[in-house]
Amino acid sequence: MAAISLENLSFRYPGASEDTLSNLQLEIADGEAHALLGASGAGKTTLLNILSGLLFPSAGSLRFNGNDVSRQSGRERRVAQVFQFPVLYESLSVAENLAFPLKTRKSDAGLIAERIAYICDELEICDLRELKPAALSLFQKQLVAVGKALVSPDVAMVLLDEPLTAVEPRTKWRLRQTLRRIQEDLKVTMIYVTHDQTEALTFADRVSVLSAGGLLQTDTPERLYAAPAHEFVGHFVGSPGMNFLPGQALGLGDVERVGFRPEWGTLSRGDADSPANTDKPAAQGSIGAEVLRTRLQGAQGGEAFGLITLSTAHGEVTVRGPMAGNSLQPGDGLQLQLSRCVCFENQTLVREIDFL
Ligand SMILES: Nc1ncnc2c1ncn2[C@@H]1O[C@H](COP(=O)(O)OP(=O)(O)OP(=O)(O)O)[C@@H](O)[C@H]1O
Questions:
Q1: Structural domains in the chain plus CATH codes
Q2: Which segments carry the region annotation Disordered (predicted)?
């Protein structure tokens, strides 16, 4: 397995006037489960193609275990890839499909048999060995494709390109869990490329958020959530994303903007001294608000629970929490108390504040 490092890596498509990827700096540890997360057009496919050796960087370098592999083919780098749609030979059995990468490298029969047994055991697909792909579910086919990627004993890294795309919806979570288990068991360096934050945050040890060809943050899922380095990350990660208000709204006039997650707010009935929709800065961490609308999501501990959109003097915000027996009505005056917020200058994180 390999540690991967990108050093000031940039890429520009021939004829383009701007770089599609600019100055990427990234260190991925040997055996790490890493996710590249970004919206459509962020540059994920371009970076994936650079990692797999289909494209070469225009500037900077890509290193595997310290060796510059920027100009090597995927085969030389020993990169294996799992695509959105399982790539299997329909005329070959599962065992023969698994053997294929080793046969093309002229591995000896003993090693091939040993590796197929090992992979089938690890992926729990021993009962599928003699079946042809046509007899398999999409879930099973993708599992075999993962097996093909892992079968070579000297694979340096496995790239997973939106691997759940083609799998039946009800088995997506199972494949994601299986991938995670395999990664942990085999300690393979895996890079999972996706636009889906749930997939990225539940699969990876660390996630890199890519936007407009730049890396905004590389961090653990917990830190991405609690301390987004950039406002875009706060907005993009989480469902719904982070709320933003001017610093002055919370009496934090020394910072430009504050962000808080819907989960970081609790609501209480407003009092006469804290009317909603006034410009008066509130005590730090507390602000007057008025209910705009509510959206029931379910119940927790027998109490209605959902999203409450509030109007404040400084803009709308959304809070997740109990809906007081669903008795909240549009127009109700409330007090919003935050447990935590993060502060931004020029869209960049400058301070984290825990109020409680
Ligand atoms: N062959 C190409 N020539 C010129 N520009 C390209 C080419 N391929 C992609 N691009 C541009 O590079 C940028 C990044 O595209 P890329 O496909 O890497 O993004 P992505 O994050 O994978 O998006 P998606 O999830 O939609 O595939 C886009 O602006 C795209 O238009």
A1: 2-236 (3.40.50.300), 243-354 (2.40.50.140)
A2: 266-286
